[in-house]
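Example 3.2
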Amino acid sequence: MDDIANSSTALNPPPRPVRWVLDASDALLRLERWLLTFLMSLLTLLILVNVATRYSGMPIYWIDEAAVYTVVWLTFVGASAMTRLRLDFAVTMLTEKLGARNAQIAKVIATGGVLFFALALFAMCWIWMDPVGIVSKGFDAKEYAAESFNFLYTERTQTLEWPVWVLQLIMPIFAVCMSLHALANLLEDLHLAPQRQHPAFQAANPEAVN
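Structure, written as tokens:
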């Protein structure tokens, strides 16, 4: 059934908006691949420097915190890429017992659920970070915190002394990236376009509901 749908889609090119979404998702995936390489290299470097300086008796106190935030960003970037590659977790005990049509329906519902979660996460990040509120206060973090009791823009990290909101931008960024990837997956699951392969990641797409 899937082969027939994919072959008919190949004969009829997908609509231009669908191609735009898929192309944007692929471009983002290539950027995420570069970011993953960079973050993993940075994490390795930080750990090696930390070991060397501690062994020499001259530890650099901010490296531990930098490594933690590097892992956080690495995790979210990797999770976004895994969404497009369909490597996120799936439970197939039910769908394996369904027919081809019902399994496809379940697959679309699951992908739609991922998209809904990503959009809901972005909405929560918008409320939490309240960009309109901080702009209305002229980017005065103290005045904004006094009125809203939201101290996000006044907090700084313990050792790096970086603004916390800069590091936590990964949350809305992740929500946007995941939304785009989930939308691309949903368009493929609805057979509006053939499912694309991503050989650069050298990962096979599992046959699962996700």
